[in-house]
Design a protein that fits this description.
The complex is a heterodimer of chains A (201) and B (597).
Chain A lengths: L13 H6 L8 H5 L4 E10 L4 H12 L5 E8 L4 E10 L1 H12 L4 E6 L6 E12 L3 H12 L3 E6 L2 E8 L1 H11 L4 E6 L3 E4 L8
Antiparallel strand pairs in A: 1-3, 1-4, 2-3, 5-7, 5-8, 5-9, 6-7
Chain B lengths: L5 E7 H11 L4 E4 L6 H8 L5 E4 L3 H15 L3 E5 L3 H15 L4 E7 L15 H5 L5 E4 L6 H13 L5 E7 H5 L1 E5 L22 H12 L4 E5 L1 H5 L2 H14 L3 E3 L14 E4 L6 H9 L2 E5 L5 H4 L10 E6 L13 E4 L2 H15 L6 H16 L14 H12 L4 E5 L3 H9 L8 E2 L10 H11 L4 E7 L9 H7 L5 E6 L4 H10 L15 H7 L3 E5 L5 H10 L4 E6 L23 H4 L13
Parallel strand pairs in B: 2-3, 2-4, 4-5, 5-7, 6-7, 9-10, 9-12, 10-11, 12-13, 13-14, 15-16, 15-17, 17-18, 18-20, 19-20
Antiparallel strand pairs in B: 1-8
Bound molecules: thiamine diphosphate and magnesium ion (MG).
The site of magnesium ion (MG) has 8 residues of chain B, from loops.
Chain lengths: 201, 597
Amino acid sequence: MGTHMAKTPQKPEPEEQAANIYEGSIPLARLKDKDIYRHVMAVLVDNESGVLARVVGLFSGRGYNIESLTVSEVDKEKKLSRINLVTSGTRQVVEQIKAQLGRLVPVHIVHDLTDEGPSVSRELALVKVRGVGEKRVEALRIGDIFRSNVVDSTTESFVFEVVGSDQKVDAFIDLMKPLGLVEVSRTGVAAIARGTKGVQE
Amino acid sequence: MPDTGITEERLNGAAIVLKALQEQGVDVIFGYPGGSVLPIYDELFKQNSIRHVLVRHEQGAVHAAEGYARSTGKVGVVLVTSGPGATNAVTGLMDALMDSIPVVCLTGQVPTHLIGNDAFQEADTTGITRPCTKHNYLVKDVDQLARTVHEAFFVAKSGRPGPVVIDLPKDVVMALGTYTEAPKTSAPSKQHTAYKPRVVPDRAAVEAAVELMRNSKRPVFYTGGGVINSGTRASELLRELVKLTGFPITSTLMGLGAFPAADEQWLGMLGMHGLYEANLAMFHCDVMINIGARFDDRVTGNLKFFSPNSKKIHVDIDPSSINKNVIVDIPVLGDCAHVLEEMIKIWKEKGGSKVEAKAHKTWWRQIEEWRARDCLKFEQKGKIIKPQYAIQRLYELTKNRKTFITTEVGQHQMWAAQFYRFEEPNRWLTSGGLGTMGYGLPAAVGAQMANPDALVVDIAGEASILMNIQELSTAVQFRLPVKIFIINNQYMGMVRQWQELLHGGRYSESYTDALPDFVKLAEAYHCAGLRVSDPDKLDDTIKEMMSINKPVIVDVLVDQKENCFPMIPSGKAHNEMILSAEDTTKKVITGEGLALV
Ligand SMILES: Cc1ncc(C[n+]2csc(CCOP(=O)(O)OP(=O)(O)O)c2C)c(N)n1
Ligand SMILES: [Mg+2]
């Protein structure tokens, strides 16, 4: 998908922000930028059947990238689910993605966490590594360094639970490859903005 | 007692559906029965306020509903059965989505306990129609039925309009439940609280737009179907603003009629088969004011060279239209009528244009030079009818009546757009976005149903008309005197034209062989059939067509080799138009253009 090359977009310069005088306007230079950036988004949706298909269908139908997508109910009373997704594209494409998501009937809010200020993101992975002797000891040592938990073990295998940014999880998996990596199960990225403000405020 | 909008009376689901439709003001449904919708048909039978038009194919039902919607500004309603009924409707739904036409389509579904079991006539209708509707519903609870119907109407007609499907399992329409009245407020959606399309624009954005307009020396209005969808008020306001500013105006295929073609500020349609003056004005303008159009590829030509030196204003109700194809300087999110009203107000407040009148004069002089090329020029000589002449005569002879024109897809459609001159919105019904052959006849049926006293003419091609010819039967049954004016060139003319342009004139499968005798075909359907091949008899034939108070097919035998010009070849820019057949040899399509459609 060529997404590994994606950059993180710069925050707008102050004078660019000042040019943002009315809703929906984005500095032209930014829109014309052909570089590809990686964006983490949070989308609040009505939790109803078909809603995930709508979002996924939008991405496949219009040829957008999805690097990661997770969905889970976050408010039982209001029946709201949160979709966390990681995508990449030029600024123009990313703005399109947000607008296309925003006009789906069950979508409440689309937040571009990458754009809107600092955010934290975490992913959890369960990583099964098989090995004996020195390799087994080394796997355990790396597990320690990454502050992972061993959630299952046999005399010849471990299942590590590792939590962190997706880059950290990537790095962990890479290191385990020569040590007998058997299987990986990842949750996808969950992300949230730093600070006091809530997603619906 | 608090008014909850819920009545205690218990009704079956089918009756609830009918009651909700009645409350929504529906007077006509276009549909076709089948097993899963029989309970709804039974309720239809028991009432009188809603008429049902029995079409002959479900695709026809959706196009008819579109014709009804476009000619009235109201929501068109469709009722079809599960499985094949629903899948047959898909093309119509996609057509309505692409052209932003408000349609509510009720589809039958197998009972809920059978869903997923490959039951007889089961299809995953919500799955299939998800990408070709604005929204869709599968109703599993009879008590949600009324609410869902009300919300569906709101979604279909608000914001950027579009088709909405409600899938109705048979057990749900047979179950007893309670009726819920439509909410009184404008935002009724109880299920989807987030759906609130923006209508009123941001004042700062409109001010910035007007400021650009006031400073512009070479302005042009580029308007689209959004103006028509916004309602007749938007067309009135557009006329006011265009008069106020004195700017030239062009429009997309979808927007024809919003501004009167007789007006001197009117440049004609733009785009692939648009007028020379319109496309060159787009290319050379310094400020482009896009109102309710979407920078479609038929309009822009090669994006790299699209209006290279202009500042662009884009008014649209759909945020996803903005900056999608063309990056604009001033986006204005809102409903056309609201935005136009605001523009007029601010234009007046600020005291109009800031540039010297001389600048605008120079611009107009330039436009007049382009106009003088007379790009639609054709010669009617000899004993063969030119297709352009046929449409020109049709226009001249019908213009004083309230006339609705629908079309099929192909050269005849483009000639109709070029040579039929529209003075009013909602009179021109054509499949723009999807380009659906077979659209025109059912759309005419829908328009005639809504406008019984009007003249409704489907300008057709001999190939396209065969795609939904069965709807002639519908027209006869419901006494809808639609006229089918076939521009018969014995070719899929538009395909042949492209083959000449791109494929060395190898007419692979574009000759329409084994055509029926359209006069006899009309007679077989109990309609009138006329044929004309002599230019001198054309007028009389058209008059005769108009005088017959039942459906008529007119088979107009025209010059088979005529091509549609002007044309921006695929991959080319607005200033690289082909103006005539002779011009074609000089401007060859190469490279990327070959791969475009
Ligand atoms: C359903 C459908 N199938 C195929 C096409 C592709 N197509 C566009 S125009 C055309 C030929 C139409 O021929 P006719 O109706 O005779 O019109 P003409 O161009 O000759 O005026 C075809 C096949 C289409 N637009 N729609
Ligand atoms: Mg033809």
